[in-house]
């Protein structure tokens, strides 16, 4: 499929006929191999802009996502059209983050997430897809200390180490402890069982119905706030699935080590939201804005080798 058959590049109305797209499209695609315009005065529109091809084009660094071919662009377009408000809010946020501190970035991410918590797209997902809470014990975090090192073990293997409220609070307290105790030179985070973490516990989605209240809860309890402060002492050891909130937290680590069977995914867009556990901040600092957007918009799984090439992980082990 040719890029021009996907949609156009409506940066401004006078620039909107690059590929014959309607102005109301929620996404635009441009073929960088054929476009010569640089549009140095470009003001990005309030929706995702996907570039195909030449990464050295003068416009490439300004776009939201770069892909190699029209096939991958088409996959992105389908995902964006399914959740256009979430996709637009995500790219707005990612465009802002390079100019913000970690703390300001986390606050901005939480506000963007709160906006989407009240959206029709997320409410529809909750109504149709949120699982019924299972009769499982609450999440546990096992802490052990050996000299100057603390090991934190996600201990909810029966739920794929999904992060529920008790586990979230325990993680926050563990990283806060590290920040209060300078004698701790390392905190290593691991997951028990076949998965490092399947992300946030989906059964808890929508249980706080007021987005403003949910924002304040995140500002007080999100582990990312404390994990970011001790990043140079934080090591994440990944084995198996590393999804959503689990990946978002691990990406704050100064060193991420993964087994070769590990894989990584950000599935939030399909739920009508964006990564809201700090991942928009942590991943952009590891792999850049455009690759973060690709992961979040596509929802695709990335294997350990690709993650190493991107810088999402720092080393692989058998």
Automatic annotation (TrEMBL):
<dbReference type="Pfam" id="PF00378">
    <property type="entry name" value="ECH_1"/>
</dbReference>
<dbReference type="InterPro" id="IPR001753">
    <property type="entry name" value="Enoyl-CoA_hydra/iso"/>
</dbReference>
<dbReference type="GO" id="GO:0016853">
    <property type="term" value="F:isomerase activity"/>
</dbReference>
<comment type="similarity">
    <text>Belongs to the enoyl-CoA hydratase/isomerase family.</text>
</comment>
<keyword id="KW-0413">Isomerase</keyword>
<protein>
    <submittedName>
        <fullName>Enoyl-CoA hydratase/isomerase family protein</fullName>
    </submittedName>
</protein>
<dbReference type="InterPro" id="IPR029045">
    <property type="entry name" value="ClpP/crotonase-like_dom_sf"/>
</dbReference>
